[in-house]
Amino acid sequence: MKLIDGKAVATQIKQEIAEEVTRIKTAGGKTPHLAAVLVGHDGGSETYVANKVRACEEVGFTSTLIRYEADVTEEELLACVDRLNKDADIDGFIVQLPLPKHISEENVTEAIDYRKDVDGFHPVNVGRMSLGMPCFLSATPAGILELLKRYNIETRGKHCVVLGRSNIVGKPASMLMMQKGYPGDCTVTVCHSRTKNIKEICLQADIIIAALGVPEFLKGDMVKEGAVVIDVGTTRVPSDKTKSGFKLTGDVKFDEVAPKCAFITPVPGGVGPMTIVSLLRNTLLAGKKEIYP
Amino acid sequence: MKLIDGKAVATQIKQEIAEEVTRIKTAGGKTPHLAAVLVGHDGGSETYVANKVRACEEVGFTSTLIRYEADVTEEELLACVDRLNKDADIDGFIVQLPLPKHISEENVTEAIDYRKDVDGFHPVNVGRMSLGMPCFLSATPAGILELLKRYNIETRGKHCVVLGRSNIVGKPASMLMMQKGYPGDCTVTVCHSRTKNIKEICLQADIIIAALGVPEFLKGDMVKEGAVVIDVGTTRVPSDKTKSGFKLTGDVKFDEVAPKCAFITPVPGGVGPMTIVSLLRNTLLAGKKEIYP
Q1: Which domains does chain B have, with CATH numbers?
Q2: ipTM of this predicted structure
Q3: Distance between CA atoms of residues A171 and A11, nearest Å
Q4: Which of A160, A274, B24, B134 has the fewest Cβ atoms surrounding its Cβ within 10 A?
């Protein structure tokens, strides 16, 4: 069993990005600039946005954090999106989800100029990804593909089972894994809450991408010998052993599953760090106008 | 075994659309107007476009056919798209694919205003479909779902195997079949040319959507008893028994597969007629500005 060290890969890629930013700056080019919009004070969102801003600084980007209280109106938020769309210095920006219930996430996501949508959530980027066209790839699925690539894990002709059909992981991951080329060319099965024989299907998988958000869902008896398991779950489970009072728990019962795997990602330190790296890469591409002129 | 009569369902839906068009006209509303752009003289394309124009007339739409010779430049074609985008009387239009090799289908498809993209090929419509948002659904997958619905075929919790990963059938059909709700909520497996154990996977399927474009690919020993088989294949195979010199052949070896099925679509007369109906429905929605204001 080989542990996929997402943290180490992320560190390496951040270094590669930092080197490219240095070259761009040295050549007199524009420093990539990411803005993040954070609404309210959700603990998870605070942490994610803080990590994104810190990562921007690490690689030499400019970053801007815009905060709103949870009672901001949709109108005010859309006005902010509009300003960011028009701000020529901002190459890409994200509005951290989830948003308070009185604001439509769809409206906000659609209002973002797709050429600055470095989260890859806008319908144009989702559609172009599905069609195999250049686009800003959704961060988590892109991070998963990058891990498979860096570890030279064969995907062509393999059966990849995706657990979960969310818009930000399950669906785009399934689309990417079935695309022509590498990483891709998988036979792909998508399972979800309505799937009846999930154990039987998982046992056929060469690669499992677990993104249900159900802690320790995937047990040892659901995985065949030699499988590759990518754990996307990051549920905060209460814990009296940590200072924060919770611990991040994956969708995979690691102790049972790991011994059977050829490769497996841990939680934390697997897919998580790669998500931020995908965002940095999209921002770099946005700054260089490589996807959209 | 019950035959799914796509022709009869299509006739019924066309009648429903015709009645609605009559109501709209009686109420002084605008007559829906579809334009079709045809480049060159490919036999298949000629037939498809002629059928679309005829179907428009049958339901009371206005239709416009615009023809170009095969040597039209991409620039000229894009200028035509631009005119149609701006023409307030045209509610929706299609550019019949395939296009000659010197013209980029991606450029042309992306140039179409997504609010008039009644083929559902524009990235915005593909993306919105994937995200479960209102959109112009791609015609063939929408036709398949309509057939399942009209025949009250249960899909929830069923295992749907999609053969083929094309942008116009395989990928969108897989997305729609996994969406929450009915028809949908399927466990979905997508197989393609790189799939190794396609027979084994097909034998697990409750529903098979065959869209490989390989005549008579799906044999009797690949289908379990009681399966629902939807045949999207329409390959023109040379034949000395028809006046045209070819016959339309599906992806399913019908004689072997049909006896095992609960439901099956024939070729021709199954999915084919539904594709045009989906186009008519999208045009009606476009005329009523129901998807995009």
Answers
A1: 28-113 (3.40.50.10860), 139-272 (3.40.50.720)
A2: 0.95
A3: 27
A4: B134
